[in-house]
Write a structure and sequence with these properties.
globular; Helicase, Ruva Protein, domain 3; 15 helices; 13 strands; 5-stranded parallel β-sheet; 2 domains; alpha/beta; Rossmann fold
C-alpha cells in the first residue's frame, strides 16, 4: 500500500483515542499497581477519526508512517495552518500501531528481548514474563509541571507508609512509544531543556527528595504547531528527524470531501469508524510487515552517495542530514515493499528530512522547501 496515495490529513481536531484491543501499559511504582495519575485525559473510551479516512496532506501522513516503521528517524514536526488536521492525523496514528512485547508489571514497558535497555527493576528479576501491550502515545500538555513530566516522590506511600518510592511521570509512560506535544513551539523553555537532555541520552534521571532514579526513556517525539505563534528553538528543531509543512487545501473537491467526512464522523462516530475499519487494519498490517522487513533492507552505495552529495549541495551542518535521509528512505522502501532503496525514495523524502536543517541564505528569498526541490533536481538528475 503506497504511502503517497490520496488519503491524508483531515481538518478538525477530534478527541484522541487508542482503540487497540490490547491493554495499554500500567504504570506501577515499587511493584504496586497505580491508578492513572492526573494529567492528559484518558482516550480509551472515545473513538478517533480513522487514519485511512483522512484526505489531503500526503506528506504529513507519509512522515508519520515512516516514524512508525523506524522510530530511529528521530520524530516528526508538523507545522502549518490552524484547522488542517495536524492533531487528527497524529492521534489517528495511535490506532494503527501494532502491539509490542513488554515485561509484565514493568512501569517502563521494557522490551524482554533487549536486556541491555532494561530498567533496574527488570535487571534484578531472574525470570521475566512478557505480554502484548499497545504502543503508548502520550500527550505532554503545555502546562505540565516538571514533576509530572519526569516523575517525583510517591506522596501517597510517603504519607501513609513513610516509604520513599518513585512515581513515574510522562516520560516513563512514553518509553518505547510516542510523546506528542501540541503547540510545541509554545512549550516552556525549562521543559524544552529537559526534553533535549532525555532525547539525547534515552535515559531519564531524577534526583530529588532523597531519590536517585534512572530509567529508560526512548520515545519518538511528535510535535505540531502554528508558525505564526512563534518559532521553535533551534536545539529542539534539530532533534526532529522529519519536518512537514501543511497548508489549507485550495481545491474545492478536497475541501468538500473534508467537510463531508468530518460531519459524518461527528454524526455517527461508531458507524464511520466501522466503515473504515478494514482499511485501517490493512495499514496496520503493512506497518507490521514493514518493521519485519526493515532490518534486512540494505541501502546501496549509490543511494548513500547521492544522499551525501545532496546534503553537501545544500550546506547542511553535521551528518545528521545524511543519517536521516538514509533511515527515512529505507523505512519508506520497507513500507512500500521495495527490494532496495532507490533514488526515487530519496527524492520523495528529501524535503521532509532536510528543509529544517538549512542555513538561512539572505541572498536567496525562496523558502527552504524550494531550495531542497532545486537541489534534488540538480543532484539526483545527474
Amino acid at each position: 500500500m503506497p504511502i503517497n496515495g490520496s488519503t491524508q490529513a483531515m481538518s478538525g481536531e477530534p478527541v484522541a483515542a487508542n482503540p487497540l484491543s490490547v491493554k495499554p501499559p500500567v504504570i506501577r511504582a515499587g511493584g504496586r499497581s497505580k491508578a492513572p495519575q492526573p494529567g492528559p485525559k484518558s482516550h480509551a473510551a472515545a473513538p478517533t477519526f480513522p487514519f485511512s479516512a483522512i484526505v489531503g496532506q500526503d506528506e504529513m501522513r507519509r512522515a508519520l508512517l515512516i516514524a512508525a516503521v523506524d522510530p530511529s528517524v528521530g520524530g516528526v514536526l508538523v507545522f502549518g495552518d490552524r484547522g488542517t488536521g495536524k492533531s487528527t492525523a497524529i492521534r489517528g496514528l495511535a490506532a494503527l500501531l501494532p502491539a509490542m512485547e513488554a515485561v509484565v508489571g514493568c512501569p517502563y514497558a521494557c522490551d524482554p528481548g533487549r536486556p541491555a535497555d532494561h530498567c533496574e527493576r527488570c535487571r534484578e528479576q531472574a525470570v521475566l514474563r512478557s505480554e502484548k501491550v499497545a504502543v503508548p502515545v502520550v500527550d505532554l500538555p503545555l502546562g505540565a509541571t516538571e514533576d509530572r513530566v519526569v516523575g517525583a516522590l510517591d506522596l501517597e506511600r510517603a504519607l501513609t507508609r513513610g516509604e520513599k518510592a518513585f512515581e513515574p511521570g510522562l516520560l516513563a509512560r512514553a518509553n518505547r512509544g510516542f510523546l506528542y506535544i501540541d503547540e510545541v513551539n509554545l512549550l516552556d523553555d525549562h521543559l524544552v531543556d529537559l526534553l533535549l537532555d532525555v532525547a539525547a541520552s534515552g535515559v531519564n534521571t531524577v534526583e530529588r527528595e532523597g531519590l536517585s532514579i534512572r530509567h529508560p526513556a526512548r520515545f519518538v517525539l511528535v510535535g505540531s504547531g502554528n508558525p505564526e505563534e512563534g518559532e521553535l528553538r533551534p536545539q529542539l528543531l534539530d532533534r526532529f528527524g522529519l519536518a512537514v509543512e501543511v497548508t489549507t487545501p485550495t481545491d474545492l473537491p478536497t475541501r468538500i470531501d473534508v467537510v463531508r467526512r468530518r460531519d459524518a464522523f461527528e454524526r455517527d462516530p461508531a458507524g464511520f469508524c466501522a466503515a473504515h475499519a478494514a482499511a485501517d487494519r490493512a495499514i496496520r498490517k503493512t506497518l507490521a510487515d514493514a518493521r519485519a522487513r526493515l532490518p534486512g533492507l540494505a541501502v546501496p552505495d549509490a543511494t548513500l552517495e547521492a544522499a551525501a552529495r545532496l546534503c553537501l549541495a545544500l550546506g547542511t551542518d553535521g551528518l545528521r542530514g545524511e543519517l536521516t535521509l538514509m533511515r527515512t528512505a529505507r523505512a519508506l522502501a520497507a513500507y512500500e515493499g521495495a527490494e532496495t532503496v532507490s533514488l526515487d525514495h530519496l527524492a520523495r523524502i528529501a524535503p521532509s528530512a532536510l528543509r529544517h536543517r538549512l542555513r538561512r541564505n539572505p541572498l536567496d528569498e525562496s523558502g527552504s522547501t524550494a531550495r531542497v526541490a532545486r537541489a534534488v533536481e540538480d543532484v539526483l538528475a545527474r
